Amino acid sequence: MLALISAMPEEISAVVESLTDVTTQEIGQRQFHAGVFHGRRRVVAVFSRIGKVAAAATVTQLITTYGATHVVFSGVAGAVQHGLAIGDIVVGTELIQHDLDATPIFPRYEVPLLGRTTFATDPQLRAQLSAAAEAFVRHDLGARVAAAQLRHFGIRAPRVLGGLIASGDKFFANAADLAELRQRLPAVACVEMEGAAVAQVCAEYGVRLGVVRTISDTADESAAHDFPRFAREIARHYSVGILSRFLIAL
């Protein structure tokens, strides 16, 4: 079973609207929607809820109840890497918990008992998501999102790139905090609040994972202002558009 998780309710509602033959089950205050996505493949879709614990609980339920063997996690993220702009897409190569610190017992960022600081995504899913994202921005974005909305966010020629994604239970909305993160983890492309927890659970259960994140803000003082409108007007179209391309190519 392929599971589609989104970190934004606006995104998952758009995915659910694309499903047919839907059955919905509520478990642990989460709505799990099983159905056929664009007539091509049976999937289960769910809103992860916000933060690492919530996301870990959600993906564990997908694996144990629905037998998920492949997980694709979409959502938005704040830009960390210089040059990333709103509307760019990051396909995760690895994920790390930027707020995990069990020193001096374990090295900083190392997950206790697992002996690792990062979790890699599945190479095949990564390649398929990258191709889907490229096709979306090249062929579909202009048709799905109004030109005025793209202009408002300065989205002109969005890029798709792979990179390290950092996760933690913190919303970055301060330039000083962002600079401190860049100093600690200079390889990080973008930051969000769930992905590394999902990656850890998938690794422990032997489940293949792909992660795609759309840059919604620059993780500084403008983030709180930009984020809600981007989620409403842009993110849902990116998510459904990329996932549609991804599933068509399977």
Write up this protein.
The chain is an alpha/beta fold and 250 residues long. Helix 1 packs parallel to helix 7, helix 2 packs parallel to helix 6 and helix 3 crosses helix 7.
Poorly predicted segments: none
| Strands side by side in the biggest sheet | 5-9-8-6-10
- Secondary-structure element string: EHEEEHEEEHHEHEHEH
Count of β-strands: 10
Secondary structure tally, helices: 7
Give the SSE map.
Layout: E1 2-6, H1 9-17, E2 19-27, E3 30-37, E4 41-47, H2 52-66, E5 70-79, E6 89-97, E7 118-120, H3 123-144, H4 147-152, E8 160-167, H5 175-184, E9 188-192, H6 195-205, E10 208-217, H7 223-248
Summarize the structure.
The chain has 250 residues and is of the alpha/beta class. It has seven helices and ten strands.
Key phrases:
7 helices; 250 residues; 10 strands; single chain; 40% helix; five-stranded mixed β-barrel; alpha/beta
